[in-house]
Every structure is written in C-alpha cells, then in structure tokens.
Amino acid sequence: MKVILLDNKDSFTYNIVNILRCYDIELDVADSTLFSPEKLKEYDKIILSPGPGLSDDFPILKKAIRYSEESMKPLLGICLGHQAIGEYFGGQLIRMNHPVHGQRISCHVDNSNPLFKEIPKEIEVGMYHSWTIRSTPNKLKLIALSPDNVVLSFCHKTHPIYGVQFHPESFMSKQGKKILENFLSL
Amino acid sequence: MEKLMFKEKFTRYLKTQTPFLFIIDFECNSPLIFTLDEAKEKGVLFDVKGLRNVVYRPVSKTIDMALNPINQTEYFKRFNNVMKHLINGDTYLINLTFPTEIKGNFGLKDVFNCSKAPYKLLFKDEFVVFSPECFICTQNQEIFTYPMKGTIDANLKNAEEQLLKNKKEEWEHNTIVDLMRNDLSMIADEVVLNKYRFVERINTNAQDLLQTSSEIKGVLKPNYQETLCDDILRLLPAGSISGAPKTKTVEIIKENEIEERGYYTGIFGIFDGKEIDSAVNIRFIQKQKQKFVFRSGGGITCNSKADEEYEEMLKKVYIPIEK
Q1: Which residue of B166, B180, B182, B217 is the best one to mutate when testing the A interface, meaning the one whose CB has the most A CBs within 10 A?
Q2: Within its chain, how far is the Cα of A57 from the centroid?
Q3: Active site annotation includes A129
Q4: B247 interaction partners in chain A (CB closer than 8 Å)
Q5: The whole model's pTM is what?
Q6: What is the residue-wise DSSP string for B249-272?
Q7: Secondary structure tally for chain A: helices H, strands E
Q8: Beta strands in chain B (DSSP E)
C-alpha cells in the first residue's frame, strides 16, 4: 500500500510518520505547497497534515479532497486537513474565542465507525486549533464530539473521507496510533 | 563554504573518533567547529558536566547586576503583534526574546568561572553561555532530547505542586513535547516520550527556581555518523527557542524581534570521541561595544499575558551560582 502524507509546513507531521513507520506500508511525505495533484493517482491513501493558518493557504488540500471524492480512495484530514474537508463540503469555519493549543481534553467517539473501531467511547485527545467547523455539513456524518459540543471528527456518508480536528499523532492522544491503524485498514 | 567545511570536519572527526567542539548560530549561517586544543588556542573554553578544556577552580562570587531592559511599551507593541498570529492559528507557541543591557561587578570570564550550569561556554571576549538545557545527546546508538518549559520560584508555598497544576504551563509543555517528538522523528526511529514533566531545582544569584522538563528518546540508524551533521542541522533552530509550527513561527520571530539571534539560542556541543552532548544557547551574555547584554525571553501562547511575559523575561536575567 502506498500512502502520501501531504505536509502543510507543520511541525507535527513527523509524529504521524513515527506512527506510520510501524506498519508495512510505503510512505511518502511531501511538502504540500510543492506537490503536484497529478501525482495523487500514484497513491492508495492520502493523509492531510495539520498546519498553520487556514486551509485556503494550501490550495492542494481541496484538490486532494476532490480527487478522493472522485476516486473513492481513502483520505484522512488532521486539524487543518479536517477543516479543509469541512469547508469543501460546505461547512462554515469559525474562529474560537479561546484557541486550544496543547490541551488534552476528553472526546466522545462513535466507535461503530470504522475509524474508531475497537476504541473506547470516551477517549483523551490532544488539541492544537484556533478554528473549528461550526456544524457538520449535510454530506458528512458527525463521529466525535467534545464535551462542549465542538465537532471533533466527521466522515463522508458515502465516501471514505475522514476528518479529525484533534491530533491523533500527539502523545496526549493515547488512542491515536489505533486511529491511524484503523485508517490504514480501510 | 563555511557550512561545507563544517560538515566535512564534523563527519570526519566523528568517524575518526576525534573529540571536538561545535557551535551553531540560530540562523545556521556561521557554524564553527574546533578540536579541543584548537578551541583552547582560540580562547574558546567549555565545561560540559565536568568535561572541559580549561583548568579553573569554580569560584564563589557575589554577583550584583543592574538591568536596563527594553521598555514595556515597546515590548507590549511587539507582544500584541505576536498575539494576532497566535489567535489566527499561524503559530501555537512562539519564543519571543529581547536584549537587556546589564551592568555589574564582573566580566565574561568571571561569569564563566562562577556560574553553575551543566553546559558552559566562553567564546573569546564575545559571549558566555551557562545553559541548563540539553539540546540533544547520543548514547549507544540512541538520541535523547530534554525540552524544558515551565519555571516557578522555588520559595513559593507548594511551589512544585503549583507548577505541576498550572494549566498554562502544562499546555505549553505539551506543545514543546509534541514539537520535539516530531523533530527527533525526522532523524530517528521509534521515538518515545520516556519521562513527562519532571521537576529540577536551580540555584541562582537572585532566587532558587524549579523547572519542568521531559525526556524524549529515539533510535539512530546503524550508520548515523554519516548523516548526523545534516541531521542536527535539520533540527535547527531548536524547538524550545523557536516554537510550532516552526517555519511560520521563525518568520514571525524575525518580524518582531529587535536583533538577529546569532549564537544566542543556537546550540553548542562536544563530541568526547564516542558520544555527543549539546546545549541550547540560553542564559547568554554577550559583549556589544563594551556593553554587556543579557538576552532572554519566553514562550508565548494564546493564553499569555503581556505584563507577565515581560516579567518572566526579566526573571530569566540571572546567573546560577555555586552555593
């Protein structure tokens, strides 16, 4: 299996790599600002990394989501990548009054969803964001929520497209490795 | 050219097990490398946990210092610029530093002699470092880093408990831990967080401090000597004195600080013929046109308050001494 991890000039990308190295996959990491969308067809799965600023600062993100929508290839967006998915499907991005950088919070997940397979319903996750998708767009299904009702994860109703607002690669997300493993086994 | 020569020597000394000293600036423009004798000849003295190229007796000396820092209005203006970026999510954590002119009864060499720190460096008559913070060290094919974030006056009531319970300190520490896990993962495999937020004590000329650190470990590749120089350069600037995400954060630092960092917040290290041990160049005094300047700063997050950060920056203008 060939996986492409699009790095949005982030400093947590290699925490994802550190996890993915444990699995028997072929992984490429590419600077998302230099990556040509034509190359997406060489891969079986796509991961969009976290990153600074807004998803529109990284035009490749929405192209990758469109490609996944058309090709049915699994795509996982983390933080900024999650927000790109939300916006692509018509969700509204809002700035939070209190950004949550470096916070560990509890999160309620729908473990009947393949992304959260064999994961407890209540998990701790690490957060680094100052923007969120306000409500889940029609084409998407909400699959994780924070205690104060912030959308923490959604998936497409008919396509293997997943977004997580929290950081599975953070040391604070004890189930993060399992979540990435679940994505790889989609 | 300088960089090429640096890399060539670094790799050759590693392979031939020749002990050496290296110093790299924040901007990575002017890396320096010396064999231990060369260093001594050039007036570059070090003491890394007792391994040193100079015979001296650590002296006990009372240090008196008068501070002339950046004025608050100026600091607040720059702090507020940085806060806009934090609120916008351009950065989650940013280290903002400023120079403070100091006057006192000492020279750079006195500071080198009487300060107590695991990592000490005296660079000619230009600057002195007495750093508590390890950058990376190697041990039997493994690499370690010890990000340090969070300090408190040790004399406060329940100081340790207060420090560990402080949410802002915890969030900032978490960010640096994830950042340094990321950085080690760029150059090593099987990166793990070994110890989380352990407390250490530092004695200073003004007060005693408690601080929290974590330990992160990775496994180096079998032939790591071939690539270690490039690997170390790839880790720079160090996460604890830049921030996350690093690329954008360094841009914001450059826009808002008064002067180039230079060797301040760069790194220095030694290779003892077997392993590398290195420090982040914090607790740094430099001589600028016959004046002494102490450079300090702190990590700013979206929860930081300008007046508290200003105080924090000045609180770090101290010299740790033998007691």
Answers
A1: B182
A2: 17
A3: no
A4: 9, 11
A5: 0.94
A6: HHHHHHHH-SS--TTTTSEEEEE-
A7: 4, 9
A8: 20-24, 32-35, 44-48, 51-52, 65-68, 93-104, 119-123, 127-131, 134-139, 142-145, 148-153, 189-203, 208-219, 243-244, 267-271, 276-280, 284-288, 291-300
Query: Is B48:B118 a contact under the CB 8 Å cutoff?
Result: yes
Asked if A168 is an interface residue toward chain B (Cβ–Cβ < 8 A), one would say: no
| pLDDT tens series, chain B, 323 aa | 689 999 999 999 999 999 999 999 999 999 999 999 999 999 999 999 999 998 877 676 777 889 999 999 999 999 999 999 999 989 999 999 999 999 988 899 999 998 989 999 999 999 999 999 999 999 999 999 999 998 888 999 999 999 999 999 999 999 999 999 999 999 999 999 999 999 998 877 777 889 999 999 999 999 999 999 999 999 999 999 999 999 999 999 999 999 999 999 999 999 999 999 999 999 999 999 889 999 999 999 999 999 999 999 998 898 887 66
Instruction: Please confirm whether the linkage preceding B245 is cis (ω < 30° from 0).
Output: yes
Catalytic annotation present for A169: yes
CA dihedral B68→B71→B74→B79, nearest 10 degrees, is 80
CATH number at residue A148: 3.40.50.880
Q: Is B151 left (phi over 0), alpha (psi -120 to 50) or beta?
A: beta
Cα three-residue angle B251-B256-B258, rounded to 5 degrees: 120
Using CA atoms, how far apart are residues A103 and A80, in angstroms rounded to an integer?
Answer: 17
Determine the Cα–Cα distance for residues A97 and A77; give it in Å rounded to an integer. 23
Looking at the structure of chain A, the number of domains it has is: 1
List B32's β-bridge partners, or say none: B23
d(CA B39, CA B29): 20
Q: Taking the CB of residue B255, how many other CB atoms lie within 10 A of it?
A: 11
| Alpha carbons B182 and A165: distance in angstroms, whole number | 19
Sheet holding A151-156, edge to edge: A26-31, A2-7, A45-48, A75-78, A161-164, A151-156, A140-145, A93-109, A122-133
Strand partners, A123: A107
What ipTM was estimated for this complex?
Answer: 0.97
- Rounded to 10 degrees, the C-alpha dihedral B62/B265/A13/B222 comes to -90
* Euclidean distance between CA atoms B191 and B184, whole angstroms: 7
Which domain covers residue A83, as residue numbers? 2-184
**CB-closest option in A54, A101, A129 to B93:** A101
How many other β-carbons are positioned within 10 Å of the β-carbon of residue A40? 20
